Structures
1.
Amino acid sequence: GENIVVKDLAEKLNLNVSQVITKLIGMGVMATQNQSIDGETAAIIAEKFGAAVEFIPVETNDVSEDNFGLDFVDKDEDLKLRPPVVTVMGHVDHGKTSLLDAIRQTSVTKSEAGGITQHIGASVANINNKKIVFLDTPGHEAFTSMRARGAQVTDIAILVVAADDGVMPQTIEAINHAKAANVPIIVAINKIDKPTANIDRIKQELVENGLIPEDWGGNTITVPVSAKQKIGIDDLLEMILLVAEIGELKANPNRRAVGTIVEAQLDKGKGPLATVLVQKGTLKVGDMVVSGTSSGRIRAMLDDKGKRVKKAGPSIPVMILGLSEVPNAGDLLYCVEDEKTARNIADKRRDKIREEQMKLSSKVSLDDLFEKI
Ligand code: GTP
Ligand code: MG
């Protein structure tokens, strides 16, 4: 069940930590302020002080932290530069989709024109032989739901602010998300083609929200753009590559792959489909993988243009076919040694979920019982 650190419990109960420890000792529980106690004990303590404990059910299918030792830290000498993964965020209607479209058009090469366009929740732009990966998932989601699962997929946030509208509530929310994730922000001041556009006013509002533009003596890169008229798009891409270079984004491409599920769905004909953003190692057709309770051998992989590929290295998004069930967006995907290992891990996670659900339902029925008394 749920555990809580004694100190945190005292804080939540608005008590001195020694008061809590004394009560614990009275119950025969010896714990220091930094040790954790189980939820049941915490509930009893709370009750003794006239407070009630509310059990908030954990998302039962979230088993991402439970990686069965599948991940390990790479040696510095094995790390190679990888493309940046970029998320576009901003207020409603400020032009996020238009900007992504403009970038895609600018960067689509002729050879790609024949490929089947298939939406895979992420796209790769090629700029002078350098790649930039854009996550198409709604900006906030890429931060919130994935971060809640411990996955950080974004390297750089593009904050779109419409020059005729300014900093709005969702702009501020986006700034907070990016700051919480410790991700650098590049501001794209969009819609500069509009007669009512006022770039200086936007910069002033950015300052008011803690982002001081470079040309005003701060360190926030701002790029005036028009997604509609395709103005400033190259400058923006250049700035992304610059920020990526400064960040020295690296990963080891020569190891078993670890990635994050960006998007997943069930296709009637093809079965479960999942878009994976590879983060470490190289994912290959034929690899055995496990994500949550889903496992399987990769039958085929498609790149962001819908083209079949055999492998995908760090930062590269691919759609994979071959999983046993639809995995959860935000969950990690691990490449494992063999089928037995994959099945074993998926089974153990399934058991754990079942166990947690049972605990939860017995808890609920107990609560129901007490309510009736
Ligand atoms: P949501 O996904 O609904 O939050 O909106 P969004 O941020 O993706 O904005 P979207 O790209 O859909 O653009 C909203 C409107 O602004 C559309 O009507 C676009 O045509 C318009 N728009 C986007 N960029 C520009 C621009 O650079 N100039 C002008 N004049 N209009 C733009
Ligand atoms: Mg949009």
2.
Amino acid sequence: MATLSLENIRKTYGKTEVVHGISLDVEEGEFVVIVGPSGCGKSTLLRMVAGLETITAGELRIGGERVNEREPMDRDIAMVFQNYALYPHMTVFENMAYGLRIARTPRAEIDRRVRQAAEMLQLEPYLARRPRELSGGQRQRVAMGRAIVRKPRVFLFDEPLSNLDAKLRVQMRLEIRALQRELGVTALYVTHDQVEAMTLADRMVVMNGGHAEQIGAPLEVYRAP
Ligand code: ADP
Ligand code: ADP
């Protein structure tokens, strides 16, 4: 049974269909990258999986259960956004702990998980700071830490490195790979950057005009014709 299963997922805005029946199974521990030009429907697809957009038609299953109508908090997923979406008035620790607080996780367990993630992401020195006192790369690490501490079944990434400069983008790409190996995460990762997709993907979905044009291992997808 696939950890995440999309069966003929569609999205229509008014009379315009922007996602045309996408089917995809993501296995446990698999890192799937959706790549394609701006406007092809990547982020709409990801937002439907996250529960931030309604699904017009099709079946979405997480851990074998249909979740089409479930709230984002009840889907066993965590999403990392391009703009970090950190709470400016909270410290790094509080930002990372927030989701666990809402889920009523015991304080000692919150403390343990946040410190563990902070160590993994080299954020220990910054736990008492606020987001505005951090660099872009550090903010993106906090956003990742906030997802990691929840131990979700599926991680969703929406162009997480797009706001970083080129050098940091390379560095963060390597860090995400290290995290993949360390945690064995199951992920759906959206980017328009082909190098990023090639580096991170176990499998790639190449989208164009709302269709999945190709699905396969990076070398299969980019093999010379
Ligand atoms: P991508 O993430 O690949 O850049 P999007 O998923 O953001 O693409 O958008 C796919 C298409 O859907 C685009 O043509 C976009 O204009 C359209 N779209 C996205 N959101 C809405 C909306 N709320 N209402 C109408 N059209 C939308
Ligand atoms: P990005 O590709 O960086 O996510 P977009 O321009 O696609 O940025 O989308 C920004 C926001 O505007 C999203 O919430 C999207 O749903 C909405 N949006 C995009 N295209 C349209 C559209 N044609 N009509 C209405 N809302 C749209």
3.
Amino acid sequence: RLRVLSGIQPTAGSFHLGNYLGAVRQWVALQESHDAFYMVVDLHAITVPQDPKELRANTRLAAAQLLAAGLDPERCTLFVQSHVPEHAQLAWVMNCLAGFGEASRMTQFKDKSAKQGADRATVGLFTYPILQVADILLYQANEVPVGEDQRQHVELTRDLAERFNGRFGDTFKIPKPYILKETAKIYDLQDPSIKMSKSASTPKGLINLLDEPKTTAKKVKSAVTDTDTVIKYDAENKPGVSNLLTIYSTLTGKTIAELETEYEGKMYGALKTDLAEVMVEFVTPFRDRTQEYLDDPETLDSVLAKGAEKARAVAAETLATAYERVGFLPAK
Ligand code: AQP
């Protein structure tokens, strides 16, 4: 079995539709065919200021949402990043291998630090991609299921793994990004030229899965389309409608072509009303299931404890090999 590894931040509380369609949905599918490791990346979360109480609550909330989305602890390893100290330990080694220039070229860092003001961005935000490199390499992952915005970080992982292997001998698997073309980038409902994101989207453009279903329906119905009237997929000229068709198609399993036929001659309003209904049908049980997991924190914590134990067994072995290759004197 090939191995996959991926993570999600516990920062915003609710997952948004981009997180789900771009990443989490694939995680659920891949646990059937792959040896799957998924984590809530709380170490990444503190690259921007977090309230400690909220961070703890949001970490449980993220795990609850992953289970609600369909991750099954019998089929995958689900854990919290900070429960496995090897992440931070390997990250240091990788920090010492990465060039300052190559880290400076990470577009996500450039965007996020520009937003915060370069002087206010933390060093942690700068080295965040290197921590991600360590996350992936520790598990010898073959594939990394993520959205398009993470492609550059997986490329960096490949570069650093090759550099390490070249310098110290074959140690790490070279991972590949696993990015589904159709859902690689879900766009903001109000501004379909930008990705749906918790930091860049306005509340109306962002579908939070834990919002009141009524609010979600309203957001879908007021999604920006275009002045044309034809319902067809054309990402370049009709980005708003194309985004809605992608979402509709993924949530229902109908192909885009089927939807185009179904909506031939119909108005945008009809598409939005139907999609609003599809969305409500999706988020309502998702919210309920999330709440059920939250209502039983002991079970949730025990799932995470077992996950951490399984993850640590793999991570510790890789770290020990990496330390040995680097030349650290083994502790007796
Ligand atoms: N719009 C999106 N379309 C497709 N995939 C997306 N992902 C995020 N947005 C989209 C994917 O979700 C996974 C988890 O990402 P994250 O941990 O970075 O989650 P986030 O911080 O909630 O994502 P945001 O909203 O993108 O955060 P900001 O605004 O801070 O940048 C990843 O696999 C990601 O690709």
4.
Amino acid sequence: MSNNNEAISEMSKLNDGTEKIIIKIENLVKRFGKLEVLKGINLQVKRGETIVIIGPSGGGKSTLLRCINKLEEYQGGKIYLDGVDIDEYDVNQLRTRIGMVFQQFNLFPHMNVLDNLILAPTKVKKMPREEAIEKAKVLLSRVGLLDKIDAYPEQLSGGQKQRVAIARALMMDPEIMLFDEPTSALDPELVGEVLDVMKDLARSGMTMLVVTHEMGFARDVADRIVFISQGVVEEEGPPEEILRNPKKPRTREFLRRIL
Ligand code: ADP
Ligand code: MG
């Protein structure tokens, strides 16, 4: 009897474990012509985790995020979202589930903040305009920019633009947020306000993959740091382990240069 119970409890643990994995990347290979950029990436992300991806420039970090969001095709391996191969998803359907924020804000310059926010939900999700406006107001308050609802992107600072870009991505109620160096185009004094919004989001339980070299953010917020170099995951682990006691020479060398 007790054995049986143990077996059942083991099984539910297993079920738990697999249900929790929201993204699974297996042996991902990406080439641009003859250049192999991703050489067999393996990575699993649990629901609610914040993963910080670090690594040398040109190592394939952006390409990896772009593959997850179907902005790039790949030549080998698989990416699963909730256990389903992303090949099976329609690209628009996938992108309602995965939000992305880039280094260069990518706001539509000819639209004000409100219209930037409501465009995708009204077009792609067919959300009624009034509902979208209400949602936009909630999210703009959340990023501290409700007073900028009528402003145009050129009237905003870089930090404000990036906070709008985050609010815009959240309009679709994504389950996962991808950030590709969201603060590297910002003046240093504007970095904090964007990181604060991201910290809030992480604490609210969002699943996040963040490419950044803001190691303070990584230390405070990341559940895991993943070091990508030369197209593979060279090393990964909790921040305290990776930052204090990196095992691989390449990780050590990289951290020595950026810290
Ligand atoms: P990271 O984000 O880590 O700096 P990237 O993923 O941007 O690295 O780039 C990895 C490699 O792929 C680099 O050598 C880069 O030049 C190359 N690359 C990226 N995008 C393209 C593209 N569209 N066409 C050809 N090569 C590309
Ligand atoms: Mg990049």
